[in-house]
Amino acid sequence: MSTVDADTPEAPQHPHAETVEEFRAAIAAVRAKMAAAAQRAGRDESEIRLLPVSKTVPEPRLRVAIEAGCHQLGENKVQEAKRKAENLADLNVDWSLIGHLQTNKAKDVARFASEFQALDSLRAAEALDRRLQAAGRSLDVFVQVNTSAEDQKYGLAPDDVVGFLRELPKFETLRVQGLMTLALFTPDTERVRACFVLLRNLRDRVRDTDPDLIGPGELSMGMSGDYEVAIEEGSTCVRVGQAIFGARSYPDSYYWPPQRPSGEV
Ligand SMILES: *Cc1c(COP(=O)(O)O)cnc(C)c1O
Question: How far apart are CA 50 and CA 196, in angstroms?
Fold first, then answer.
């Protein structure tokens, strides 16, 4: 496999797949680690979905990845996802939106997305429901929870989740599938694990008190750097980009709001 960004530290861990065979190998490597993590936790690997995250990857490479078996792709930004959905409309792909939604983009999401994993406001729920009603569609949604207590990240505070879920049944086009989170970005595995445990405990509590509100109770958690830990803690959907597509050259701040400049309060 060829590697790009050879000067970035992640490059050796994340080969840059180009051909169908290379994509198949990268996916198989991730699936093998998923299976091992599931086995360590005494879980059945078939209950864990691998969602390949294709942000920043241009359409010609996506065609190859789709040929290699990626029929569901995760994108963080609506504009980018919309462009790709249009350019790849001849192929069989379901698009999953996994990033924050600005309500003025709800119309686009209602048109082409099959899933939205970052629901964290009633405004977004209202906007989506209105657009979905108009389009005669429904949408699988995950409620995003901020399990890392970092104020620069999206997601509801854990204490607000039950109240939020209780508001959702009135949006008939939204089918709640479960909860989603991003763990703390740190090499300290135990602090990462604590985020995943928090999400699982929250799901379990809702299942006890309000089982009708959480659908199948899925847990979307785990990315390239932490999906094995997430599976050990109960993840049912891992969102994996770089381990399949190679290291990204964009900084993560392009996708997540940057930290406040120092001095700002
Ligand atoms: C980019 C992204 C991922 C995947 O991250 P990788 O490091 O590429 O695996 C997962 N979840 C969200 C919300 C993302 O934006």
Answer: 17
